[in-house]
Amino acid sequence: MWPHPLRLLRDRRAGAGILVAAALPVVIGMAAFAVDLGAVQLDTRRLQGVADAAALAAASGDPTKAQVTAQAAVTAAGFPRSVTAQVIPGNYVQDASIAAASRFTPLSNGSGNAMRVVLQSTSPTFFARIFGKTNIVISRQATAAQQRYAAFSIGSRLASLNGGLLNSYLSALTGSNVSLSVMDYQSLVGADVDLLRFLPLLRTSAGLKALTFGDVLNSNVSTPQVLNAIASALSADGQPAAATAIKNLLNVSGGQSLTLSALIDAGPFATQSEGGTGLAKVNALAMATAVLQLASQQRQVALDLGASVPGLASTKVFLAVGQRQAQSPWITITAAGTPILHTAQTRLFVQAQLAPTLISGLGGLVSINLPLFVELAGAEGRLNAINCAGGTTPSTTLDARTDAVRAAIGNINTSALNDFSTPINPTETTLVHALLVDVVGSSNISTGASEPWQQLTFGLPAIQAGQSQTISQTVPVNGLATSLVQQANLAVVLAGLRVPVSPLLQPVTSALQLVSPALDTLLMTVTGTLGVGIGQADLRVTGMRCGAAVLVG
């Protein structure tokens, strides 16, 4: 017989078995959670290792084969279950000011420096199978970036070498008498300064306590200290003639102070104190001139060239160089499109007087005055891409665009040249002045400021050879003086009345056309001395590095 129900309720025997039976689902669930969670975590960690290896492989090889490379790395890792891999090309920026999750930007064209690999697989369960869960989907990702950077400069133009003009210009900058020989200048034109060799030498020359390249660039130093370090760097690189020429400037350079960060951006090397030689180089003459320009308190100089220009009885040149734009150095080491390099805004005014010539109707030899005004807004350049792809020739691509050019025949107030915040508007000028007859004229050329970006690609052989490339405006401005003369609006003023048609105009025009090619040469030489070009921009990639890929955040 069955026991009475009340008796069963009062019976305490076999209570533990009932409790165990009741708790068994919970115990199994906890075991499933502990054992299966541990197994999933172990598989996830193993999958992360596979993702890391796949990302490094994809970032190190040919970007066009990144998917295949990553899949091969996954297969080689021997993960026990099927793994799907997705490769996302992009660009990674190592910038502490940017949130870690935002430093990677996907790119559809695969032109970036990084690869993100996303893996997905499954992890089998053990106890959870009781509840119908046979496996858990797991996913891991890793991002690897190739350490790549390039050094490039803008505006190191030396189209022609005129020792007399250079001596006059450097003398005006330093307030002393610079008299370097043509051989001195030729040795400087043919020499390069290794910037990452120069900076430690400057640290010693200036007695700086600065530790890193960035600290050195942000320190106040004097022109003699900078020039002495340049000479030492040239000597260390086996360029003694150029080093001697730089030392000849030490006695006349003065003691002005400057901060080189306005000229040089060390990029990823800013936190280093040594190393990197051979990457960033710049022409020795261009660097010496840029240093003296930066240190000079005279933003405007006047040069009297006398009768040194063929066909001219006298030539005076007024130069004004504006401050460089903020955060726009002259040379940079970078892995991205910043900073954008600019040449300095420049103004040039030439007062030329033609050699006396015979003009019928004026009774004897007369002089013709020709005032030329030229304004250059500043060309700019930026890094577009660094190609480190395997199987192809490494190369660096730059974007550049020329400056806006404005030129005129007319009179200006030379004291206003240095005020770049105020526009200059040349006025009609008197070209010929006689007793009762004057010839007046004006001419204007403006190319505007809407020049498009143009691409320049430098292959590794061109980089190693130190070759530069030039871009020109889409609207040619070659022969600026010639163009101004050809389109000049001339008129004869007779006893105070304008006579637009006169036999005097043709001989005056002919005389101007004869000397305009020489003036064009002068304009190109003068602007070249300043490191700029009329309607052109010169760019040079001095080095590029394609380092190993590293895992990033």
UniProtKB/TrEMBL annotation:
**InterPro entries per the record?**
Tad_N
Residue span, Putative Flp pilus-assembly TadG-like N-terminal domain: 16-60
UniProt protein name: Pilus assembly protein TadG-related protein
The record lists the organism as: Sphingomonas lycopersici
